[in-house]
Amino acid sequence: MKKSIFFTMLALISIQSYAQKENNQKWNFNNLDGWKFEHQDENPSNQCEIDNGILKIFTRAQSWDRKKVRTAAKKYTSGRYTWRTYIPQMGEKDQASVGSWIYCDDHHELDFEVGYGNAAVRKQLNAAPDDMIAYMTSQDFPSTSVPVTIKPGWHIFEIDLTIKDNKYYVTWLIDKKKQHGVQLQFGNEISFAIYCSVENLKFLGDRIPQQDNYGLYDFVKYQYHK
After folding, report:
1. N or C end: fewer C-beta atoms under 10 angstroms in the chain?
2. What is the mean pLDDT of residues 186-197?
3. Is 222 left (phi over 0), alpha (psi -120 to 50) or beta?
């Protein structure tokens, strides 16, 4: 009987481990299979294009476009989330953001939002004229937002979730370098969808965008770990 229980437990552990590894995924954007549009505006245009494995999302000047794509599945928990994202030279003072982020609901959301930044934040960071501002944000539990300067170009953005005291500990990394970390007040009872977005957001600048703005995505990857 004991041997039977042991092998049953071993089988269950093996099945669970296999299921977790099956969640490991990489999307190279040859298409949008496994993704869906989730725009948050009244503009019916998707404004998403794919060319040679690169996803482009853009917003229009003089608009409040908020264009998003996300994984169809909302099943991702602890692990490392990786985006290879191109940050352009965005319009001076434009209220626009290139986002690489994960979302469950309005209280459980972890972000990279990159834009020109408002004048007060740029002054605080002593930003150079060609610097963009990357915000690393937890919406709630706790609420935190830390800005850093970043140059236009391709970057690796990573959100790493580990379990500490049965809750998530989140680390934000840019180009493999840790930039911010915080202990969250929730754990793997919360699962996420993965997002790419370009949105005209008021807190990212000082005026409605004066030019079209865009972001490019080479790939997105999720790798499970405890």
Report:
1. N
2. 97
3. beta
In a domain, 182, yes or no: yes
Helix (H, G, I), strand (E, B) or coil at 9: helix
pLDDT at 95: 97
In a domain, 68, yes or no: yes
Number of domains in the chain: 1
Asked if the structure places residue 10 within a domain, the reply is no
Provide the greatest CA pair distance for the chain. Answer: 73
What sign has the CA pseudo-torsion 107, 158, 185, 22? positive
Range of the domain at 203: 26-224
Do the beta carbons of residue 138 and residue 164 sit within 8 Å? no
* 19 in a structural domain: no
Categorize the per-residue pLDDT at 23 as very low, low, confident or very high, splitting at 50, 70 and 90: confident
Collapsed DSSP state (helix, strand, coil) of residue 5: helix
3-state secondary structure of 87: strand
Q: Which residue has the higher pLDDT, 12 or 162?
A: 162
Closest CA to 218 of 155, 142, 129, 161: 155
